Amino acid sequence: MEKLNSKNNEKIKYARALARSSAERKASGEFLLEGARLCSDAAESGTEIVRAFFTETAISKYGEYIGAVESVCSECYEISEEASDKISDTGSSQGVFCVCRAPDRSALSLKPGGRYIALENVQDPSNVGAVIRSAEALGIDALIISGGCDIYNPKALRAAMGSSLRMDIFTPDDLPEFIRRARENGMKAFACVPDRSAFDIRKINEISGGKGIICCIGNEGSGLTEQTVNACDAAVTIVMQGRAESLNAAAAAALTAWELKR
Asked: Which residue, of 18, 66, 93, 192, has the fewest CB within 10 Å?
């Protein structure tokens, strides 16, 4: 395994740029994974790993995980602790990194009876990652994520715990237009809003008439845009007790996913 000791090596600098910059990830079509378990998940899920970096300590400590990466990646490097610290987005790095190729997310084939969650302009990477993780756990068919946090943000990837590598995720630029086309093809779309006059979300499967469902959840502060709400068939709400006016986006998505699959 070739050694890269300098933190100023171009490959190290590029890996750091992928971790820090959404624009760099978008321009290159690549993203950075950090952590032994996440990198091993990438290898096992069929994610294309372009190159990998391991510290000497990591090689001795995480041999099984690193072996999984080495079995699918021919470009692996041993790096210094100083180089690892430069790449890392965490306070206590495990010293395991993979540069991965982002899959094509330009098209999504909606199943007639499928259950989907759409996020619009959700900004917090921890929320985005938690939604992806919950969606996989509860059996949502795919996610539609429009605007907001980049799904390859390092914090979002960590919060998703590998689910980002396994879930079908579509990232349209224009969510209202996507919803209109989906409805033309027989899907039902609902806007999740904090409004007691909206339909109780516990009745969503009943009011959908047995059709496939897309349920939309909006930005943490401002909710869904008016254009997206108007593009949907109807509004639904999670009925709350006490004086709480709204839920965290990740909590709302988890409850929505539960109702969609109940």
From this structure: 93
Tokens linked to 137 = 């756990």
Buried b (16+ CB within 10 A) or exposed e, 15-32: bbbbbeeeebbeebebbb
Per-residue pLDDT tens over the stretch 50-89: 999 999 999 999 999 999 999 999 999 999 999 999 999 8
Q: Is the pLDDT of residue 245 over 90?
A: no
Residue 83 has what pLDDT? 93
Mean pLDDT of the chain: 94
* Among 93, 108, 102, residue whose Cα is nearest residue 47: 102
Q: Output the CA–CA distances (angstroms, integers) from residue 227 to 137, 172, 199, 218, 238, in the order listed.
A: 30, 15, 19, 12, 21
Give pTM, 2 decimals. Answer: 0.93
The single-letter DSSP state of residue 210 is T
Question: Residue 112 gets which letter from DSSP?
Answer: T
| Two structure tokens written together for 117 | 């969650």
Distances (CA, A) of 116 to 32, 52, 69, 93, 138: 27, 33, 31, 35, 11
C-beta separation of 44 from 65 below 8 A? no
The whole-number average pLDDT for the span 166-189 is 96
DSSP notation for 45-107: HT--EEEEEEEHHHHHH-HHHHHHHHTT-S-EEEE-HHHHHHH-SSSS--SEEEEEEPPP-S-
**Cα four-point dihedral sign 97, 44, 129, 218:** positive
User: DSSP label at 227?
Assistant: H
* Residue 234's pLDDT band (cuts 50, 70, 90): very high
